[in-house]
Specification:
Elements (H helix, E strand, L loop, with lengths): L64 E6 L6 E5 L3 E4 L7 E3 L1 E4 L4 E4 L3 E7 L2 E6 L3 E2 L8 E3 L5 E4 L8 E7 L2 E6 L5 E4 L7 E3 L7 E4 L7 E5 L2 E5 L7 E4 L5 E6 L2 E5 L4 E5 L7 E5 L4 E6 L6 E5 L3 E5 L7 E5 L2
Parallel strand pairs: 5-11
Antiparallel strand pairs: 1-2, 2-3, 3-4, 5-6, 6-9, 7-8, 8-10, 10-11, 12-13, 13-14, 14-15, 16-17, 17-18, 18-19, 20-21, 21-22, 22-23, 24-25, 25-26, 26-27
C-alpha cells in the first residue's frame, strides 16, 4: 500500500562517405528543441500540496476497500480504499472522496488512498497508511484525526509501519503488518507492542467484548480462537479467508468469501447460517450495536443489516 531523468550528452561523429570533392557539404543537423518537464510532486518532495481529492475514474471500475468504520456517535461511515478515502455522512447514499493533511515538525504531506481507518469514539479516528504527496515517509506512524479525516496528527512515540489490519478493542490496539505473521497488541496507544503468533497468517482479528483475552482470528486455514490472550489457539471454523465481527459476546459473525454470513453464540464452537450479503465481500464491521452490520462488497457498495445479517440493503455507493 502503497521523475527524474538525466540524459548523458551523446556526441555523434558524422563521417562523410567517399565522393567528389566538389560535392557540397551536408547542412549541419538542426538541434532538437529542449522541452522543460515540470517537476512531479511525489512523496519526498517539498512542492506545494494539491488539496483536491483524487478524482473518480472515467471507467466503471470500483474501489478496492481496505477498511470500513462507523462513528458510534452519529453513524458516519468512513472507508479506506486503494484510490481514496471516502466519507458517507448521515442520511447520504453516496460516498465523498476526501483528502487529509498530515503535518509534523519535520514534514508535511497529504493522505487519501491506501488508508486503514478505525473510529475509537465519536468523531475520533485512528489511522495508518501511506502518503499521497509531500515529504512524508513512505510508511507512516499511527495517526489520529478529530475532524473526520481533514487533518491528521502523528501519535507521538509510534513508529513507522505498514499495517494492513488495525482494530481497537477497549484500551488496546490490535495490528498486523505486511512484514510479519504476528498479531501485535498495544496497551499504550501504539508506543510499545507485544506479539502473538497464530497458527497461520492472520487476515482478521476480533475480541469478545466481555472478555479481553478471548480472541478470534481468521486465516487461510480457517478461524482459530484463543481464550488466553493469544498464548494458545484452537480451530473453530474451516471457512478459509473469512472476515469477522464480534459486537456482543453472544454474536461472533463470520463472513466467507462468497458472501455467506454465519453467527456463533458461543465463541465459535457452534455456528448458525444467517444470510447472504448480496455480493463478494472485502470487509465487515459493526457500529457497536449487536445486530447492526456493514459490509463492503465488490462493485463499490456498502451493504447494511439491522437484524443481524438476515436481510441487507445498500447503505452507500462508492465511485
Amino acid at each position: 500500500m502503497r521523475l527524474r531523468s538525466t540524459f548523458p550528452l551523446l556526441l555523434v561523429l558524422v563521417v562523410a562517405a567517399c565522393g567528389s570533392g566538389s560535392d557540397p557539404e551536408p547542412p549541419a543537423p538542426t538541434p532538437e528543441p529542449s522541452v522543460e518537464i515540470p517537476p512531479q510532486e511525489t512523496p519526498g518532495t517539498d512542492g506545494e500540496l494539491d488539496l483536491e481529492p483524487p478524482p473518480a475514474p472515467d471507467d466503471s471500475s470500483s474501489p478496492a476497500v481496505n477498511s470500513v468504520t462507523v462513528d458510534p456517535g452519529d453513524g458516519t461511515i468512513m472507508v479506506g480504499s486503494g484510490p481514496a478515502m471516502f466519507i458517507v455522512r448521515p442520511g447520504e447514499k453516496e460516498g465523498e472522496r476526501i483528502l487529509g493533511v498530515v503535518e509534523t515538525p519535520e514534514a508535511k504531506g497529504t493522505v487519501s488512498g491506501n488508508m486503514v481507518l478505525r473510529f475509537t469514539g465519536p468523531g475520533e479516528l485512528l489511522a495508518n497508511g501511506h502518503p499521497r504527496q509531500g515529504n512524508l515517509p513512505e510508511n507512516l506512524p499511527l495517526l489520529t484525526s478529530s475532524d473526520l479525516g481533514k487533518t491528521f496528527e502523528v501519535v507521538e512515540g509510534t513508529a513507522e509501519a505498514d499495517y494492513h489490519e488495525l482494530e481497537v478493542f477497549g484500551d488496546r490496539i490490535f495490528a498486523v503488518t505486511v512484514e510479519s505473521p504476528d498479531i501485535q497488541v498495544s496497551s499504550d496507544g501504539g508506543k510499545t507492542w507485544q506479539t502473538s503468533t497464530p497458527p497461520n497468517l492472520p487476515i482478521d482479528i476480533v475480541v469478545d467484548p466481555d472478555d479481553p483475552d478471548h480472541w478470534a482470528v481468521s486465516t487461510e486455514q480457517g478461524t482459530f480462537v484463543s481464550t488466553n490472550g493469544g498464548q494458545s489457539w484452537r480451530p473453530r471454523d474451516t471457512s478459509f479467508g473469512a472476515r469477522l465481527a464480534w459486537p456482543a459476546a453472544d454474536a461472533l459473525y463470520s463472513l466467507d468469501r462468497n458472501g455467506k454470513l454465519r453467527v456463533s453464540a458461543d465463541g465459535g464452537e457452534n455456528w448458525e447460517d444467517r444470510g447472504d450479503v448480496g455480493g463478494l465481500p472485502s470487509e465487515i464491521t459493526t457500529s457497536g450495536r449487536k445486530d447492526e452490520l456493514f459490509v463492503a462488497i465488490v462493485g463499490g457498495k456498502i451493504r447494511k443489516s439491522t437484524n443481524g445479517g438476515k436481510t441487507w440493503s445498500t447503505a452507500a455507493t462508492l465511485r
